[in-house]
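pls design
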């Protein structure tokens, strides 16, 4: 009977695992999946430029000298290196790693020596410049050969320069920066791209699949039974606590193992990974990882009384394991051997090596045994915990399951924290993921521009957080005048809206449904235009803004059009995130205090969100907060964010494209009116003129709302 009961528990845990996920669990999964997707996009973007060229030959002794000065050519002709063959080429972007990689491919060389342009002339004028070196990192041989060349051959060349330009020997005529760029050559048996994917993306995907599946079913296993008041029945059966924990763990293990095995099977459909000798090590590592995660999940489930609290407690574990997996991503061959025997590390490295055709049976077996041992220990701990009345059930006694224990203050706090995790993290995570994706193609294109080298060189002067923000705004200013970037950002905002819409199951739940949609949007347009125009007029009156002309150059026409169009999805996306998505959920979390809490918290988050922009100040914080409160009150009054979407769009559009002012600290976009602006670097939102207009709008909103209530007391 005991065995049959154990099988029933196992089966039940496996079945409910498909339906036990809650919002906290899904939020964690989306964050991790989004992060993994970003890794994949970054790698693919890199590979588009990085591969597809002539394969490397084993020519570690060949060196390419870029922009070789005349003194070096003369010296090399008179004193050819004994062990290296020199080829010459030109390049005007020293920090363009992609270009450097292409040059290495082109010449089948082991390393590069980069001289800045006009090197001899700069030395003659007493201006010394850095000499950069790049070497292939597929093996450590290239580094040592590069070092020998620098220490010996270039050192002798330096002595020669000291004689020619009369430079003191103790002075540094050549300041050498030793850098490396990854080339991932491989052994010829598989493509470099497949090799990298096997060591990075696929192991992380397996980790996320195992942890999400385990969390979805494991936190539901015991804590869910406690929450429903049915766990006491299981404890009253003639089954030992240890057997109960084992049965639940096996059920969770099944839920976690199935998606992992499916991913492994799909991976083996790819020709590059069809290494039959790797099947057993991979399965050992994956299944031992699934058992370990399952045991941890069940332990956490034992210690909590609800699914939400269990999943909230599991979040740190989830992100810790993901962080460990991310730290394992490297392309060097110098990983210490003992890492292969440590759980998590061993699984990641072992799976990567096995997929690339280099499995280590001994380390895989030992790592799996150690991991299984830890899982067994976790099962024993969980069984011991169940011996304590504190971790058994959430009911007053086993005989009367209808008397539910009153949740403690800590329980209520944990429930609120669990809800806040979704409310805060989900929209911001979606925003960061899609915006970063939009930046990648433009950033890669900018890497090919010689101006990028000047920008990298200017980073040497960065020393404070203010400098970092200013440099970020500088590069963003370049992007904001690129039509491709504006189009991609518009698409990212649309995807953000769709993600939030899917999250709450419909546009109506975001406040996007309005019976008088056109009328409401028209009201928002008027509100946004009037408010920003009043701010602009006040800035002119106070002398902070002086119009200097009208129009922009023809080559900025596309940027002007696309930036104007971008404000429509941009304004709507921010309203969806901070009003439509956050406020209803915050109202539900805080109960009778829901309305003031939702207005204040969403507005505070909105202002903090803008705090990362350049020029942010105390006045900007107050203005952004007050503007957010105004929009939140409009949403609360009307039940729709259509008005605020339009007002938000017009506020930004007229601020940037019409009046030529900075939009919340972001760089200027092409505008109709050219303005000499001397106010806050954050833009008009950082001035008291904006404060006056926003406060006036709040007062007007309050007065109109009060009059309506007085005229309709019954309805009110």
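designed seq:
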């Amino acid at each position: 009977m005991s065995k049959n009961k154990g099988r029933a528990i196992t089966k039940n845990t496996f079945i409910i695992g498909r339906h036990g996920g809650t919002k906290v669990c899904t939020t964690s999964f989306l964050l991790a999946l989004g992060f993994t997707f970003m890794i994949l996009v970054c790698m693919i973007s890199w590979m588009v430029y990085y591969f597809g060229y002539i394969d490397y030959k084993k020519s570690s002794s060949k060196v390419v000298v870029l922009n070789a000065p005349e003194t070096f050519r003369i010296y090399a002709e008179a004193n050819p290196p004994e062990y290296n063959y020199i080829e010459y080429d030109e390049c005007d972007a020293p920090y363009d790693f992609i270009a450097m990689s292409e040059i290495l491919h082109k010449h089948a060389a082991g390393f590069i020596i980069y001289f800045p342009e006009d090197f001899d002339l700069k030395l003659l004028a007493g201006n010394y410049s850095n000499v950069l070196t790049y070497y292939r990192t597929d093996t450590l041989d290239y580094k040592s050969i590069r070092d020998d060349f620098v220490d010996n051959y270039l050192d002798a060349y330096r002595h020669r320069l000291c004689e020619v330009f009369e430079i003191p020997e103790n002075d540094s005529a050549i300041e050498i920066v030793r850098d490396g760029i990854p080339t991932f050559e491989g052994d010829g048996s598989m493509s470099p791209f497949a090799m990298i994917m096997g060591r990075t993306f696929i192991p992380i995907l397996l980790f996320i699949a195992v942890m999400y599946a385990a969390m979805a079913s494991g936190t539901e296993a015991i804590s869910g039974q406690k929450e429903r008041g049915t766990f006491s029945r299981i404890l009253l059966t003639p089954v030992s606590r240890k057997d109960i924990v084992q049965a639940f763990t096996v059920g969770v293990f099944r839920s976690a193992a199935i998606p992992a095995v499916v991913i492994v099977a799909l991976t083996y459909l790819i020709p590059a990974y069809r290494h039959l000798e790797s099947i057993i090590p991979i399965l050992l590592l994956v299944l031992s990882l699934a058992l370990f995660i399952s045991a941890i999940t069940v332990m956490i489930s034992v210690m909590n009384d609800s699914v939400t609290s269990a999943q909230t407690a599991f979040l740190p574990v989830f992100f810790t394991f993901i962080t460990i997996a991310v730290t394992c991503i490297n392309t060097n061959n110098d990983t210490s051997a003992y890492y292969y025997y440590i759980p998590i590390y061993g699984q990641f490295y072992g799976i990567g090596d096995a997929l690339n055709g280099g499995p280590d049976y001994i380390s895989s077996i030992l790592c799996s045994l150690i991991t299984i041992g830890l899982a067994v220990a976790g099962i024993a701990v969980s069984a011991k915990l169940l011996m304590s009345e504190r971790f058994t059930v959430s009911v007053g006694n086993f005989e009367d399951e209808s008397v539910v224990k009153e949740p403690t203050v800590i329980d209520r706090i944990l429930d609120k924290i669990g809800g806040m995790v979704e409310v805060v993290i989900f929209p911001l995570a979606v925003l960061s993921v899609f915006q970063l994706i939009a930046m990648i193609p433009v950033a890669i294109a900018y890497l090919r521009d010689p101006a990028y080298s000047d920008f990298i060189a200017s980073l040497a002067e960065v020393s404070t957080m203010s400098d970092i923000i200013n440099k970020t705004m500088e590069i963003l200013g370049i992007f904001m005048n690129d039509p491709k970037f504006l189009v991609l950002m518009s698409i990212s905002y649309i995807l953000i809206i769709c993600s939030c819409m899917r999250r709450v199951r419909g546009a109506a739940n975001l406040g996007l449904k309005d019976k008088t949609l056109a009328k409401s949007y028209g009201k928002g347009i008027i509100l946004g235009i009037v408010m920003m125009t009043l701010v602009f007029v006040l800035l002119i009156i106070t002398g902070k803004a002086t119009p200097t002309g009208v129009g922009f150059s023809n080559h900025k026409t596309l940027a002007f059009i696309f930036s104007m169009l971008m404000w429509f999805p941009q304004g709507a996306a921010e309203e969806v995130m901070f009003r439509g998505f956050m406020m209803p959920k915050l109202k539900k979390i805080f109960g009778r205090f829901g309305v003031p809490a939702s207005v204040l918290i969403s507005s505070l988050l909105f202002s903090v969100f803008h705090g990362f922009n350049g020029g942010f100040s105390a006045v900007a914080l107050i203005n952004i907060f007050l503007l957010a409160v105004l929009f939140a009150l409009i949403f609360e009054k009307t039940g729709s964010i259509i008005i605020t979407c339009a007002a938000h769009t017009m506020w930004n559009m007229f601020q940037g494209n019409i009046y030529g002012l900075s939009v919340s600290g972001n760089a200027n976009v092409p505008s109709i009116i050219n303005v000499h602006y001397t106010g806050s670097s954050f833009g008009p939102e950082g001035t008291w003129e904006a404060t006056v207009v926003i406060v006036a709008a709040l007062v007007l909103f309050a007065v109109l709302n009060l009059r309506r209530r007085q005229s309709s007391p019954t309805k009110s």
